Amino acid sequence: MAEIKANIGFKLELKELSNSSLNECMQCGTCTAVCSLSPIERPFPRKEMIWAGWGLKDKLVGNGDVWLCHQCGDCSTYCPRGVKPSDVLAAIRQISYRHYAKPRFMGEILSKPQGLPVSILIPVVVITIILMMAGTFRIPEGEVLYSKFFPHAWLNGSFTLITVYFYGLWVTGLRQFWKDLKKGSPDSKASKGFIKSLFILIRSKIIFHSEFGKCKTQRSRQTAHILMFYGFILLL
Predict the structure, then answer these.
(1) Distance between CA atoms of 222 and 215, rounded to whole angstroms?
(2) Which residue, 14, 76, 102, 122, has fewest beta-carbon neighbours within 10 Å?
(3) Which are the contacts of 89, defined by CB distance < 8 A and separation ≥ 6?
(4) The model's pTM
């Protein structure tokens, strides 16, 4: 007999983020049947909707299948109860992002619009502390030179340490995410090898956004998303 450990707080958070009435899902399987992106060997989102209804956070956070969803809305359009499975999967991804973020409070801040002022204030406070430690938190007399206000040694030294520290946190979170993905899919292996599979993924699913073209109810999202994707690359 399997013991189910429901996380009610997690379920309530899912309902709030997705604006979905999880209790109305009757497990008809329509969402999985109409999803053109759902793999045969590990179909979704029906099993995710079961776990969400029970509040099984351990099953959903670290579940690789929720990242296969493009949130095209086919499942929500055809859902007979209006439970909006695509929005539920989006909410799971948002919670997962916050779960693996290091430090955790940064994930909370950056995932909410109201956290924007705090995210701007943090570097201001950090730079102020560095200038106070350097003893240059004042308007220097004489010729205006940036190096007198923020000495190169303090600038390069402090920013290098901060950068290395946060890259270390990023690697830690990424390793934990990858570990949980492998734990949730112990039998999943790249049939053509990791490197070759990665190039296939980049060519077919990232460069051309071919998966978006399989969606039926919101096919225009393929064009909108690819324009936004390459727009950000051009801005960079």
Answers:
(1) 9
(2) 122
(3) 44, 45, 48, 66, 69, 71
(4) 0.84
Mean pLDDT, range 82-91, rounded to an integer: 94
Task: State the Cα–Cα distance between residues 156 and 65, nearest whole angstrom.
Answer: 42
Measured CA to CA, the distance from residue 83 to residue 194 in angstroms comes to 36
Contact 149, 140 (CB under 8 A): yes
At 40-67, the pLDDT tens digits run 888 999 999 999 999 999 899 989 999 9
- Cβ atoms of 126 and 118 within 8 Å: the answer is no
Q: What is the 3-state secondary structure (H, E, C) of 87-121?
A: HHHHHHHHHHHHHHCCCHHHHHHHCCHHHHHHHHH
**What pLDDT was estimated at residue 187?**
67
Please give the Cα distance from 39 to 29 (Å, whole number). 14
